[in-house]
Amino acid sequence: MTERGLGRSSEIAQARAARAALRSSIEGSSGPQTAAGVVHIELTDGVPVLSSSDALGAVLAASARLAVLGSWERFKICPADDCLRAFFDRSRNRSRTWCSMQVCGNREKARTFRKRTRAQNSTLAAV
Ligand SMILES: [Zn+2]
């Protein structure tokens, strides 16, 4: 994370803890989850609004806002073993599976196609 200019090692540790806590929440894990960061609460038109001046706090504030708005369940974890990224499902029926159909979805389609083709070829070779 330092190579991406995200900050000092203590901030990176906080960011990793926050990422782990958010990931656990997306996966529906129960139990204690902690995350650190600086989030401010401001009253705007009588409504509390969370904000932050740093990236970690902004992510945490956005997460809280999505939970309040009832959109938390739209967060998903990509099931590709070599990906496992969190993404926000914007599909109308909430059926999106992959973080990116162009990358992970197509890779899985190609893998399934190769398996099917291999099985058909071995069946033909046995005949
Ligand atoms: Zn993915």
How would you summarize this macromolecular structure in one to three sentences?
The chain has one domain (9-126).
Summarize the structure in words:
The chain has 127 residues and is an alpha+beta fold. It has one domain. Helix content is 46%, strand content 13%. It is built from three helices and four strands. It has helices spanning 9-26, 55-69, 101-126; strands at residues 40-44, 47-51, 75-77, 86-88. The strands form two sheets. It has a two-stranded antiparallel ribbon. It has a two-stranded antiparallel sheet with strand order 3-4. The relative contact order is 0.09. The model has no long low-confidence stretch (mean pLDDT 81). Bound molecules: zinc ion. Zinc ion (ZN) binds at residues 78, 80, 83, 85, 98-100, 104. It holds the Pfam family zf-CGNR. It comes from Lentzea albidocapillata subsp. violacea. Residues 74-116 form the Zinc finger CGNR domain. This is CGNR zinc finger domain-containing protein.
What are the defining features of this structure?
127 residues, alpha+beta, two-stranded antiparallel ribbon, 4 strands, 13% strand, elongated, binds zinc ion
List the helices and strands and how they pair.
Layout: H1 9-26, E1 40-44, E2 47-51, H2 55-69, E3 75-77, E4 86-88, H3 101-126
Antiparallel strand pairs: 1-2, 3-4
This protein binds zinc ion.
